[in-house]
Amino acid sequence: MKKVLLFTCLCCTFISCENIEKKAGEKLQEAREAFERGDFCEAKMQIDSIKILYPKAFETRREGIGLMQQVELKEQEKTLAYLDSLLQKKQGELDAMKSRFVFEKDAEYQNIGNYLHPSQVIEKNLHRSFLRFLVDETGQMTMTSIYCGASNIHHISVKVVSPDGSFAETPASKDSYETSDLGEKIEKSDYKLGEDGNAIGFIYLNKDKNIKVNYQGERSYSTTMTPADRQAAASVYELSQLLSSITQIKKEMEEANLKIEFVKRKMQEREAKTESAS
Fold first, then answer.
1. Distance between CA atoms of 274 and 253, rounded to whole angstroms?
2. Of 73, 98, 132, 220, most Cβ neighbours within 10 A?
3. Cβ distance 160 to 211 under 8 Å?
4. Does residue 21 sit within a domain?
5. Tell me, what CATH number does 172's domain have?
6. What is the value of pTM for the model shown?
7. pLDDT of 144 strictly over 50
8. For the chain, how many structural domains are there in total?
9. pLDDT for residue 101 is more than 50
10. Is the dihedral of CA 139, 201, 124, 157 positive or negative?
11. How many C-beta atoms surround the C-beta of residue 10 within 10 A?
12. What is the mean pLDDT of the chain?
């Protein structure tokens, strides 16, 4: 009697396992079909559901792991192709735009060069208090408040004000210095985009208005941005947005390539294990 019961239990277990593997196999087939038509999200969802619904379908789950690796590989290759196409488009826009700027780079001391508007090169702006704008090759934009005068005002921030009274104010500069040249006092304070209290964005949005610049220091000093300076701010800002997007695309491409290498390595390891087991 005991032997009959044991045999019956074994048969039930075998049939149950067969049913589990069959149902899991149906899910895996749905995943394969989704993969073939390029619906990677659906394929991954179906593969994940096998683990959740049929945790004991070990053979099907192993096959699912292999399919998941193929899905992830194709997914990253598709992403990489899209990013490469986008990069080519953005690079074309940059090639058309950068000719309107002056590029400065000291090969001996700088790894990254800077673009600035021709109207704001140093030799054209000696002995002048103004806001200067530049952007480096990665897209990081910087605004510099430059003061030139007979005596120091020791400024560390600026406030930009539009005719309607709205304004933006920078926080205290993290990079400022003072010097003198033949009795003239010169002060410079830098404010990077994103750490500028939105002063750069404010100038860009009000580029067609007369903007007043108040230097914040031990002594008060004010000046008005010239149309050329406002145009320089707007042009450099637009270039910074383009350069930043190119930098981000390159970063995402690098990440996609790393993921592709990782998945391929995992696929090779899995094939090696399968061959050694057989």
1. 32
2. 132
3. yes
4. yes
5. 2.60.40
6. 0.85
7. yes
8. 2
9. yes
10. negative
11. 10
12. 91
